[in-house]
Specification:
2 copies of one chain form a homodimer. Chain A is α/β, with parallel strands linked by helices and about 260 residues long. In chain A, about 35% of the residues lie in helices and about 20% in strands. The two termini of chain A are about 35 Å apart. The interface between A and B is medium-sized, with 24 and 24 residues.
């Protein structure tokens, strides 16, 4: 991707992981919801994703969009996800089509499929001896209204892809933490996404050639209930991290142990 | 279903077909968007589905909801489907859970899968010699933003079913016309839903025992690219009509020919 890349939701954790890993690799344009605490090293805008003028200005001149902006709270109330996540994502696609953007990478979420974690399946499905696995061919089963908004973002992408040919990759992001995997939280360990793997999967999605994909974005954890085969095949994703190599905040296996 | 049934969007064509066929079979409660031209024979309310107070009042005391209300135009603009169709459907589910409603039947649409009708497939897929068929196990591919709103209604139902146990049936309604099938419109003939079959499938959905279903609502047309097997199996649907029995507005095959 030689053209500038717009990163929306640049002030969030996923945006932070992406910029830390890929700062030098792209000409970035950043969209913040609130003024950033520190002056960014890149062109940036402050605006609301559900404001068409803000979005049009941010999208102008970019070749791809990594769309992270939205209310990130799993417990976010409906009104907030309706405007920030659903309406905001439609505005991004509308502006992308208008500006001739080639590709949109959409931050979907594990919460789009949260209801597969039934009382019958948990907590066993978080553990190595269990073999339940989702591969992205299943229908969404959102565990909360935030998850509904993410599933809706995926279907918006399907529509804009089919109608206008824009390339779309939905990444159902797991549990992103800096440094080490979540501690004392089996679910989060099974869907851990390290900062380096987060940057890497987004770079893969920027560089790979595809039409419309929905993949899981997690590290190569020993225990996982999301398949990473889709991301490997469609994007060439090669994760480097694995939550099983850690005990608490200490790495016990692998090169840095 | 012995408890009252709420019919939202009671002033529309689908509501008309349902009331004509099932007027005597249920204790109806009707929700209109605009005051009806004639005084209804049933308890009725006038209100907006995206107004929580209007919805709460309408939902009170009912055992099931047939939710038809929304902007019915395939070309409806985003702002309208966002509020009337997406937000309105969430409000219905929220009120249904609060009031302990047992079942919601949601008027989804052929437009939720409209993008399967590609330039490569059409117009051949509308014709008897073609065997392309969707069966409801495919992901939505909305052909327009109205279709996006219907796919979102389906996923809202999935969430409210998984989280609260409410029974949900999404009916992807074809092309409903009174009397005879659409004339000189192959697509509409292949997805024709007659008025009697429309009433019948909604009665089946009110009476059958299921958890969460997504079915196609069309008559038993010779040429169809939507399977009706799902509706037969899950709901016991037995359609009586077939667009192939008609030439223009005249029935040429069958009992009334």
């Amino acid at each position: 991707m030689d053209d500038p890349v717009l990163l929306t939701g640049a002030g969030g954790a996923v945006g932070e992981a992406i910029l830390e890993g890929l700062e030098e690799d792209y000409y970035w344009k950043l969209l913040f919801h609130n003024p950033p605490a520190e002056q960014p090293n890149h062109e940036y805008h402050i605006g609301d994703v559900d404001n068409p003028d803000d979005v049009r200005e941010a999208v102008e001149g970019v070749g791809a969009i990594i769309h992270l902006a939205g209310d990130p709270r799993p417990e976010a109330p409906w009104d907030s996800v309706l405007s920030n996540n659903i309406d905001g994502t439609q505005k991004i696609y509308e502006a992308a089509v208008e500006a001739g953007v080639e590709k949109v990478i959409f931050a979907s979420s594990n919460h789009a499929v949260g209801s597969f974690e039934t009382d019958q399946r948990t907590p066993e499905m978080y553990r190595p001896e269990d073999d339940f696995r989702l591969d992205g061919t299943e229908f969404p089963r959102p565990g909360n209204l935030y998850g509904v908004s993410k599933a809706t973002g995926e279907v918006l992408g399907r529509h804009y892809h089919d109608k206008y040919g824009i390339k779309v990759c939905n990444i159902r992001i797991g549990n992103l933490t800096r440094g080490h995997p979540p501690i004392d939280y089996e679910r989060g360990q099974a869907m851990w996404l390290s900062y380096p793997d987060c940057a890497h999967i987004h770079q893969c999605a920027l560089e790979a050639d595809y039409e419309y994909e929905t993949v899981y974005g997690i590290s190569d954890n020993d225990r996982k209930y999301y398949s990473i085969e889709g991301a490997k095949e469609a994007l060439g994703y090669e994760p480097q991290d694995n939550s099983a190599e850690w005990q608490g905040d200490e790495k016990v296996v692998g090169p840095d142990a």
